[in-house]
Write a structure and sequence with these properties.
The complex is a heterodimer. Chain A is mainly β. Chain A has one helix spanning 2-17, and strands at residues 35-44, 52-55, 60-62, 74-77, 80-83, 94-99, 135-138, 143-146, 150-155, 161-171, 183-193. In chain B, a hairpin with a 3-residue loop joins strand 10 and strand 11. The chains are: A mainly beta, B mainly beta.
């Protein structure tokens, strides 16, 4: 019976995700389980074409025409990831690159969130071979792999907490293909805590 | 009849008279006390040296029938062909790096390659193309394991491979024709002439092949067609009883015909051209005996290496890309040998390296001058103990002075049982690339700048607007001082000889390397958001293991040589991260992340834990026939990103990252016909092993036939 209630609450929270109902108040340890999703999104294989924007709240890609709004949380372009703040957008999205195991990470930190201060000093480190970069580039086979044990904790545009782990980065054809890939796929999972608490 | 006439003509040309060839069965079946140069820079008996030195004789080389040094070396225990992984992944493109030899688990860049004691220059990504050394002129190959920096300076961390070329002993004339699969043709002529005071050795070789293609689905061959020419000449002049003058020259050229496809603007375009590699050297030495206990050598070695590649678009013959590199080394040296007894010599010397490089990728021509002093004392104590103590001091303008000591000792427990131990320090100087490279990738847009060039390179990037004006580059303006990579190597060997015809050896080794130079990126990006890389001293690794060899001469006709190496090679920083619980792996199929355990970490990529080899030789004196079989097993080894497998940490910790082990079997039959003629036929890689991605240097099964002629007086 209790189980059922929780399930219903999850549904309620899911409803909140679509922005209709308010669920429970902020903080405290009695928060509801976060909503977990696994998505794969496609972006152009390019370092110059526009970013591909994403909203956690809507679990959906946001049109590039909304890039100057707070409708999105983060965006991909090749290995670069921007968050909706300062140099990248009007929002106040903060992000922490966290080391550890995603599944057993149960509470978002209260402080320590980084912002896209300038266009060359982004919150998420995407510099190849850097110890803190989020991915590995293997030049012998030209493969991009998200580093194991690294994930992100976001504070979103709507002031909710999300933990997000990129699981794989693939391309429609291998890098080594004579004609380079057209599309890059990012597979990631995230848990969105709709009640505004830091608990996952 | 025909060959008789031919013989007569040759004889008339070169000799006044001909005597019958010496009996061919006089080679000893007993354990030899070989003469070795590498351990002391003077001729010395193996029994005087407390060092792990292996000798490959010209007879072994000749019996194999092979024309390639790398084939000979890879059949030895503990030596493994190591490709640069970047060289193997460029599908269809010519591998620009070649193949090198991994020794005691260390990369090819850490083994010094010498010809007659003098270093070869011209490493590509740390690898010296061993095809530059023609097989037919080798007297013996001496392989010294463990750091030899105390005598030879930089690069000799894993050890030294010293190729000793033939010296004129008699009047000889030799020809060989070699024909093999892939239209491979080798033509060799050699002659030595010994007169009263002067003797000459000349050698010429032409070697060509059509190459081969392991992957027909990719345009272009795996190995492109090539033609090599080698010439060697040596003169020894005994001026009088006390003075000897030696002069020798080497010339090598390789022309490789490139033909591959590129995709500028996403449209396929064929480019054709060639890569020309040349290696020239001249060596002169005057040996003077002052008295019975004192002699000295003065020598000058000069060598030039160049590698020029140019490819043209097929459609309009316009130049697509040109890369040029020329390296020059001038090395005068003096060496003084003090002592009457070769087991108790004091060898000391000094020299200067004047080195320059000029490359399309280094901006202006560069110099790397250095000077050095070395001293090494041998001690024989109570007939049973041999000791070597030595040290070398190297001073280069670009990095701190290096002192490399070494101590080695052997103790004869009984007439059959010998224990040898050595410990030494080694270093590898930062190379030209790590100091001076100035390279921007046109495709992705990153920049890679040598440590010393960093300040200048960053200023140039800022000037051209590739670095944002707000970025402070001041901390880098003076460049970064790179330190040499350092090592400490320990070897402990037990030799047991029984019944005078079997030798069992086991050598335990450990090498600790610190200050490994790696690329890193600067904490800011270019305006195109791409990284700027340079070089820095970071990593620490170790290799350790044991090498076991066994040789047995069963009787006059049958001998066996077998070897096995067990190897562990790991990155100490990775081990520290595992210990601290900071190293994770993610299963790419279940997405489950976990901490990597110490047991899961298998070590550095491209190292085989197990390698083994066997060599069998059977002489049938009645039919003048020799059968020679070599077998090499290389156990499984890790390959980064194998079949797309990556578990998110770039270390070897999963069975799915291993390339399967393989076995190479070669066999050669040699038969003497008539007095001076010999025919050899062989099959290489009988099991037809191929692996087009990880081992493109191995062609499948191939066949060869040699026709040898030798005349000597």
């Amino acid at each position: 019976m209790k189980m059922k209630t929780i399930k219903l609450s999850v549904l309620a929270c899911a409803a909140l995700v679509t922005g209709l109902i308010s669920c429970s108040e902020k903080g405290g340890n009695s928060s509801l389980p976060a909503v977990s999703k696994t998505d794969s999104i496609a972006a152009p294989f390019s370092t110059t074409k526009p970013f591909t924007y994403f909203s956690f709240k809507n679990d959906a890609i946001v049109s590039g025409t909304d890039s100057a709004t707070t409708n999105w949380d983060f965006a991909f372009r090749f290995v670069n990831i921007i968050v909706n703040s300062h140099a990248s957008g009007p929002g106040n999205v903060g992000v922490i690159t966290q080391s550890g195991i995603y599944e057993s990470f149960m509470q978002a930190p209260a402080t320590g969130y980084g912002y896209d201060t300038t266009t060359t000093q982004l919150a998420i480190n995407a510099r190849d071979r850097d110890a803190n970069a989020w991915y590995l580039y293997d030049p012998s086979v030209h493969a991009l792999t998200p580093k194991a044990g690294k994930f992100f904790v976001f504070r979103t545009t709507d002031n909710k907490y999300v933990k997000m782990e990129i699981l794989s980065v693939t391309t429609d054809v291998p890098f080594t293909n004579p004609i380079p890939p057209d599309t890059i796929w990012y597979k990631f999972r995230y848990a969105y805590q709709a009640d505004g608490s830091r608990n996952f | 009849m025909l060959h008789k006439i031919l013989n007569s003509i040759i004889v008339l040309l070169f000799f006044s008279s001909v005597s019958a060839q010496k009996s061919s069965s006089d080679s000893s079946d007993r354990v030899l006390d070989e003469i070795i140069v590498t351990g002391t820079k003077t001729e010395n008996k193996a029994s005087n040296l407390p060092l792990p030195i292996q000798v490959i004789s010209s007879k072994t080389i000749q019996l194999s029938g092979s024309q390639k040094l790398i084939d000979i070396l890879q059949m030895q225990s503990g030596l493994v062909i190591a490709n640069n992984p970047l060289g193997t992944a460029l599908q269809g493109y010519p591998n620009p790096f070649g193949d090198g030899i991994q020794m005691q688990g260390l990369d090819p860049a850490y083994t010094l390659i010498l010809v007659d004691g003098e270093p070869l220059t011209g490493r590509n990504a740390g690898i010296i193309n061993l095809g530059r050394i023609a097989i037919g002129n080798i007297k013996q190959i001496e392989i010294l394991r463990g750091p030899a920096t105390s005598l030879y300076g930089s690069d000799a961390l894993a050890g030294v491979i010293n190729i000793i070329t033939k010296e004129p002993q008699k009047n000889t004339l030799q020809f060989q024709t070699h024909y093999a699969s892939n239209s491979t043709l080798g033509l060799t002529a050699a002659s030595s002439l010994k007169m009263n005071k002067v003797s000459f050795q000349v050698f010429a070789n032409r070697y060509s092949s059509n190459g081969y293609d392991l992957d027909k689905s990719i345009y272009g061959k795996t190995v492109d067609p090539f033609i090599d020419y080698s010439f060697n000449a040596k003169m020894i002049y005994d001026i009088d009883a006390k003075n000897r003058f030696i002069i020798s020259g080497r010339y090598f050229s390789d022309k490789q015909f490139n033909n591959y496809m590129i995709y500028p603007d996403l449209q396929p375009e064929v480019v054709k051209g060639n890569t020309i590699e040349t290696d020239k050297s001249l060596y002169a030495r005057l040996q003077h005996i002052v008295n019975n206990g004192l002699n000295y050598y003065t020598s000058v070695y000069a060598t030039t290496y160049s590698n020029n590649a140019a490819v043209y678009l097929q459609k309009n013959d316009s130049l697509y890309e040109e890369i040029k590199l020329t390296q020059f080394l001038l090395k005068p040296e003096i060496q003084v040998n003090i002592g009457k007894d070769p087991s108790s010599l004091l060898v000391t010397g000094a020299g200067y390296n004047f080195e320059t490089v000029n490359s399309t990728r280094y901006g202006s021509p560069r110099e790397l001058d250095s000077w050095y002093l070395f001293a090494q004392k041998q001690i024989k104590w109570k007939e049973k103990t041999n000791i070597i103590i030595g040290a070398r001091f190297d001073k280069n303008l670009l990095y701190p002075a290096q002192l490399s000591p070494k101590i080695a000792a052997s103790y004869k427990v009984s007439s059959a049982f010998l224990i040898k131990g050595s410990i030494g320090g080694g270093f590898k100087a930062p190379d030209f690339r790590q100091q001076f490279l100035d390279f921007s990738n046109s495709l992705i847009g990153y920049s890679l700048i040598g440590a010393r060039e960093l300040g200048h390179g960053l200023q140039m990037l800022k000037k051209s607007g590739q670095i944002d004006n707000s970025i402070d580059i001041n901390p880098y303006l003076n460049g970064v001082e790179l330190s040499p990579e350092k090592s400490v190597g320990v070897n402990l060997e037990f030799d047991y000889t029984f019944q005078n015809n079997s030798v069992f050896k086991v050598n335990f080794f450990r090498n600790d390397i610190s200050n490994l130079i790696e690329t890193y990126n600067l904490p800011f990006s270019k305006t195109n958001n791409q990284a700027i890389y340079s070089y820095i001293n970071v990593n620490k690794v170790f290799t350790e293991g044991a090498e076991v060899t066994f040789s047995q001469n069963f009787n006059k006709n049958f001998s066996l040589y077998a070897g096995y190496q067990y190897l562990i090679a790991k990155d100490k920083d990775v081990l520290a991260q595992i210990k601290e619980g900071k190293m994770y792996k993610r299963d790419p199929f279940t997405n489950i992340t976990s901490l990597v355990t110490k047991q899961e970490y298998k070590g550095l990529y491209n190292r085989s834990r197990n390698t083994a080899n066997i060599r069998l030789q059977y002489n049938n004196l009645k039919y003048n026939t020799i059968a020679f079989i070599t077998v090499k097993f290389r156990g499984r080894y890790g390959f980064s990103g194998l079949n797309g497998f990556q578990d998110g940490n770039n270390i070897l910790d999963d069975d799915r990252e291993f390339v399967k082990g393989f076995t190479l079997v070669n066999t050669t039959f040699s038969k003497q016909i008539a007095n001076r003629w010999e025919v050899q036929a062989g099959v290489e890689n009988i099991l037809n092993y191929t692996n087009k991605i990880q081992m493109p240097n191995i062609f499948g099964r191939s066949y060869f036939i040699n026709c040898n002629f030798k005349l000597q007086k």
